Amino acid sequence: MALPGPLNRYLLLMAQEHLEFRLPEIKSLLSLFGGQFISNQGTYGKSPFWILSIPSEEIARNLMKRTVCAKSIFELWGHGRSSEELYSSLRSYPVEKMVPFLHSDSTYKIKIHTFNKTLTQEEKVKRIDALEFLPFEGKVNLKKPQHIFSLLEDYGLDPNCIPENPHNVYFGRWIADGQRELIESYSIKKRHFIGNTSMDAGLSFIMANHGKVKENDIVFDPFVGTGGLLIASAHFGAYVYGTDIDYNTVHGLGKASRKNQKWRGPDENIRANLRQYGLEKYYLDVLVSDASKPSWRKGTYFDAIITDPPYGIRESTRRTGSQKEIPKGMEKCPESHVPVSLSYHLSDMFFDLLNFAAETLVLGGRLVYWLPVYTPEYIEEMVPSHPCLKLISNCEQKLSSHTSRRLITMEKVKKFKAPDR
Amino acid sequence: MKLFTYNLLSLRVGVGPHGFPLHLQATKVHINPEDFNPDSVAHMIPKVEWVAFLEVTNTLHLIKLPKGPIHGHERDEKFLRKMHILQETDVLEGILQRPRLSFNWSKLISVIQMHCAFSTS
After folding, report:
1. Candidates B22, B35, B44; nearest CB to A281
2. B34–A281: do the CB atoms touch at under 8 Å?
3. Does residue A274 sit in helix, strand or coil?
4. Strand ranges (E), A41-138
5. Which end of chain B is less congested by CB atoms within 10 angstroms, N or C?
6. DSSP output for chain B
């Protein structure tokens, strides 16, 4: 572990995916672990290199145990806009901070990462040799070193315009990798039960992170479907509830989204999905929501509400073929996943969702949901608001040329009183 | 339906506080031998409506519990083990009904309001 400093600097290497969602994810996770997002960097837009100040290595490691947006984190020892700047930056890094990782009993290796350029083996060796001025006293071990140091060179983002020299160079001690492997291990391609609108695994983990879900939390998804969002929360140790407005339940019918699959009802499917990942113990209940069924009592008991509500953005021209599978008597738009027979007006639904969140979330609890948007007419004022809920982030994901959806994250900051509207 | 869930359910809004708790007639109850996780039980306890919880543990002939959550319950393992029934107890079959009406003369006005609500539904 590094010596605790007033604030140590770390380099986050970010994945180049879901760009807008990354900063809110990192900020939410830092705040979950008692840190704060502190950085001198101007913008984060497209860059995969983020320099942050974090109070302790423990917080940095906790961050990496959760993030799916960041690939790796390094304790930053030096950086610059050229190799020369890097070396002089390294020379001013306090030696007493380096020594614990370089002493003669330790083993290490140096890795070189270049972005948007490939180096020859010769070029790599040259760079490692240039770092000899650092007080390395340990032994090199390429197979299982105790410490890994990384030299990272940034050659920009344009593969058609690769510069001779890097824009930025960084050197640091590798601390940990993020959780991007979850995206593959929880992929919906391998999941037992899916629906037409099952959430991409990466986004479901991002949502749980925006929601600051933690171990033992009670998390609720009011539009649960096949439970994809619950899986992400359960993976992080939360106990999960769902309600389902399954349009097929009324007829006692169900339609599987995969051929030859038996539909056993929403609760059994969600349980099976959790069981697939060894998460069944986090399953509390899934209720089928219906006018005659009971509802939730007054009180604050949900730590987070994370959901993908049904929304009805309709293209003016129907896609061919998509209407063949609709059960008789029910009209449904697969691309917008809402039964047309629902007389629930779109804005009423979000109003009710925010109100429900304001009533049942604990103070500090978060609501995370997708808001559909017709891009040409979108203005910020369209995002629903509530006096008890503070807007934390609003991230756009484009769906088509003129539609997108926005991931809205809100936090309950005020106790709910009935007349609040 | 887990016992904890039952404690969170009521009639739909609009029927006032008398929509809770629902009257439970359980015909099939299963105790899941779940791993005991004291932290998750401790986290649930502040969310529990205690009076309703005591009532249902009596109805289902479950273990005896104190009149309210113990102060410092987070560290009381014995108490947490008892409260584990929140997660372990699964009502597999049963009927949920509207709460029983009970006459309490000092609350006569609210009872009349209740009558009105029921007669319109």
Report:
1. B35
2. yes
3. helix
4. 49-54, 70-80, 107-115
5. C
6. -BHHHHTTEESPTTSGGGG-SPEEEEEEEEE--PPP-HHHHHHHGGG--HHHHHHHHHHTT-----SSPPTTGGG-HHHHHHHTHHHHEEEEEEEEEPPPP---GGGHHHHHHHHHHHHH-
Q: How many CB pairs under 8 A join A and B?
A: 55
What is the tens place of the pLDDT at every residue in A170-179? 999 999 999 9
CA separation for the pair A213, A205 (Å, rounded): 10
Mark yes or no for CB contact A294/B49 under 8 Å: no
Q: Would you call B29 an interface residue with chain A, using a CB distance cutoff of 8 Å?
A: no
Residues 80-119 of A with CB under 8 A from B: none
Contacting B residues, span 67-106, partner chain A, CB-CB under 8 Å:
87, 96
Task: Give dist(CA A121, CA A125) in Å, integer.
Answer: 6
Nearest residue to A285 (alpha-carbon basis) of A351, A366, A367, A224: A224
CA A210 to chain B, closest CA, distance in angstroms equals: 21
Residue A293 is predicted with a pLDDT of 60
Closest residue on chain A to B37 (Cα):
A216
Neighbours of B110 (CB within 10 A): 13
CA distance A87 to A82: 9
Interface probe with A: pick from B2, B3, B5, B8, most Cβ of A within 10 Å: B8
What are the structure tokens assigned to A419, written together? 């007349």
**Tokens standing for residue A413:** 């900051």
In sequence order, the β-bridge partners of residue A386 are: A389
Mutation for testing the A interface, residue in B11, B39, B40, B49 having most A CBs under 10 Å: B40
Q: Among A355, A232, A302, A208, which Cα is nearest to B4's?
A: A302
Region A91-108 average pLDDT = 93
- How far is Cα A179 from Cα A201, in angstroms, rounded to an integer? 12
Whether the CB-CB separation of A180 and A15 falls below 8 Å is answered with yes
Residue-wise pLDDT tens digits, A289-345 = 655 566 888 899 999 999 998 875 432 222 222 333 333 333 333 333 333 333 345
* Integer-rounded Cα radius of gyration of chain A: 25
Distance CA A373, CA A367 (A): 18
